[in-house]
Write a structure and sequence with these properties.
Layout lengths: L1 E3 L2 E3 L2 H9 L4 H8 L4 E2 H7 L5 H13 L3 E6 L6 E6 L1 H4 L2 H18 L5
Antiparallel strand pairs: 1-2, 3-5, 4-5
Helix pairs in contact: 2-6
Length: 114
C-alpha cells in the first residue's frame, strides 16, 4: 500500500493515475510543459473544458504539489499564473510519452484536423 497526500493506493501505477488521471489533468500538464501560463491562456488552449472543471483540476494539481499558483494582487485586475513545480517537472517525460502516443495513433489510424 502506498500513501500520498493522505490517500492510499494499492500500487505505484494507481498512485500515478490518481495524481494525473482524468480527462483534463494530463492536458493541463501538457500545456504547462513549455512554461508558465495564465488562467485565460490555459482556457484558450482547452476551449471545451468548463471553467468550473478547469478550476477544480488546477486546485487538485496544486494540492498534490504538481503545479504552483502565483497570484499577483498588486493592482486590479487580479493576475494568476500556473507553472509546474519541481515534482511536476518529473512528469514531463510521462506526459510527453502520452502525447507522442496520441500523435502516433492519429498518424496511423485517423486524421489530423486543424
Amino acid at each position: 500500500m502506498y500513501k500520498f497526500n493522505g490517500k492510499e493506493y494499492p500500487c505505484c501505477a494507481s498512485l500515478t493515475m490518481g495524481v494525473i488521471g482524468g480527462k483534463w489533468k494530463t492536458v493541463i500538464l501538457y500545456h504547462l510543459i513549455d512554461g508558465t501560463l495564465r488562467y485565460n491562456e490555459l482556457r484558450k488552449e482547452m476551449p471545451s473544458v468548463t471553467e468550473r472543471t478547469l478550476s477544480l483540476q488546477l486546485k487538485t494539481l496544486e494540492e498534490d504539489g504538481i503545479i504552483k499558483r502565483k497570484v499577483y494582487a498588486s493592482k486590479p485586475p487580479l493576475k494568476v499564473e500556473y507553472s509546474l513545480t519541481d515534482l511536476g517537472k518529473t512528469l514531463i517525460p510521462v506526459i510527453q510519452s502520452i502525447a507522442d502516443w496520441g500523435f502516433l495513433v492519429v498518424q496511423e489510424k485517423s486524421e489530423i484536423v486543424i
